[in-house]
Amino acid sequence: MQRLKQTLSRIDGKGYKAYKDIQGEYAFPGFRLTIDYVQGDPFAAPSRLRVRMPMERAGYPAEWYREKHRRIALEDWIARCWARQTKRHSFEVKGTGKSGLIEVDRPGQEILERTAVVVNEAFVEVRVTVGLPAQGRRVLGRKAEEMLCRQLPQLAQEALPRQTLDPQAVEERMKLVDNQWAIRRFLKEKGWIAFIANGAILPRESGISDKPLSRGNVIPFQSPASLEVEVNVPHGDPIRGMVIRNGITLIVGGGYHGKSTLLKALERGVYDHVAGDGREYVITDPDVIKVRSEDGRRVEKVNISPFINNLPFGRDTRRFSTDDASGSTSQATNIMEALEMGTTCLLIDEDTSATNFMIRDGRMQKLVAKGKEPITPFIDKVRQLAEEKGTSSVLVLGGSGDYFDVADTVIMMDEYRPVDVTAEAKNIAQAQVNERTREGGSGFGTVTPRQVLAQGFDPQKGRKEKVDAKGLHHILFGTTAVDLTGLEQLVDTSQTRAVAEMMRWIGKRADGKKDLKALIDELYQEVDEKGLDVISPFRGQHPGDLALPRKLELAGAVNRLRTLRVR
Ligand code: ADP
Ligand code: MG
Questions:
Q1: Which of 142, 172, 238, 506 is 20 to 30 A from 229 via CA?
Q2: String of DSSP letters for 228-273
Q3: Which Pfam families match (predicted)?
Q4: 300-330 pLDDT, tens per residue?
Q5: Per-residue pLDDT tens over the stretch 103-123
Q6: What is the pTM of this model?
């Protein structure tokens, strides 16, 4: 620390570049400070630092981090503490540009594996970004000393050792994630899709907020008796709630009665949520995918023939490519790509679906002959999908009773309360003869894996490689913009950043022989063995702002890369 102070006083008042001299490692009382990267000027991306405290000093019991789900929960907890604390200090030290900024990647409502904090047997490490202070382009050495040698040590004292983390609250967090883990295991064992605990709060504050709705009348979730199950959890009483089994589940009900809200909660249930979120015990199979129509997206040689055939001009739909997909072809593509990745269940909302993809009634069948209609609607494929491929579906459909014929379970949302109306729906289906003819053919059809070519990935921008996330749903890959708006289960910008890096990795490993799924599996295997840091492009610098995305979102991003080429 003395050495750092000396350097800072030596470079005080010099040009900003002189800050490069402080790169390196320093012993501080109780921890080690590593300055990995120093920014080039006060407006540039901030400098990257690490604060590492030996475990003997931090004093965490091994039960807090031995199991993976607990370790992730602990790392998340520490990241939140630091994000809160750094906010207090940030910009206390004033100057030009980002001078005085101290930041740690801030988690949202989900508990995700992220690179902001690392806990293991040897140490706990927090990755911090700092705006080194300047006046104009001159080094403010005194102020830098204030940040690095007073504020940081204070943070390390206040938000790292066990007793400063509120051990009671950490224990509560551990119990929560243990229970979430137990429900996930329960679903897996049964082969079921989702569990929604009684009392869960599903609606969100607003269309742009992920916080629970608290104003006005909020109706807590309550399972209908016929769909209620009880799950044993390691901490506390068994938890009761509604189960969504494998097969085909229909969510019906009047407009504004909470159908989409229920589906959204299921989408997000692939992640664990923090206490107080309302969706703590809304748990979904980790491989379910929300699919929607997404006209305008690019498609690269996807076999969409199970849904689309006889396109004008005899275009081959077994290797369908387009730079501008329609509503129905984009939705078919999204489904086929998800099947390629081995999804367990499709979540589909009428609000974001192409109507002609979902249904075609008897009258329309009479008017437009099958030979003239390229689309086999989803209704004629959904059973084959479940029976042949083992892929379930949960469908929000307030507009068509035709699906009563194919559904296993029908749930009606009635003023935000789910009612099991399966028997009534089946009775109606039986009493009223359906005029429509089945169009599904004898089987679902083939899911064709694709081999990725390296040439489609060009991270080059000018002379440098550059990939970056521009907000939650946009990536700049070299000079190509990738639009991820269709990936509704991407929840954190740090995931998007990771997706961008992982795409670069895929591009380097693609050889025209390996399937996209095999490539992605390989990458996740490596991440599992070595930690999420491995995808970082910075050698010797910490990647403190990445969070693990699902394989399905990574595949989704690769598939949306407009330059993608497959064999
Ligand atoms: P639908 O898809 O059936 O038309 P939505 O799910 O979009 O309806 O819900 C309509 C509105 O009701 C939304 O503003 C949503 O936030 C609100 N809402 C949903 N569930 C609840 C609930 N349990 N309690 C209170 N408000 C809710
Ligand atoms: Mg809706």
A1: 172
A2: EEEE--SSSS-EEEEEE-SSEEEEEESTTSSHHHHHHHHHHTTSEE
A3: ABC_ATPase, ABC_N, MRB1590_C
A4: 999 999 999 988 888 899 999 999 999 999 9
A5: 999 999 999 999 999 999 999
A6: 0.96
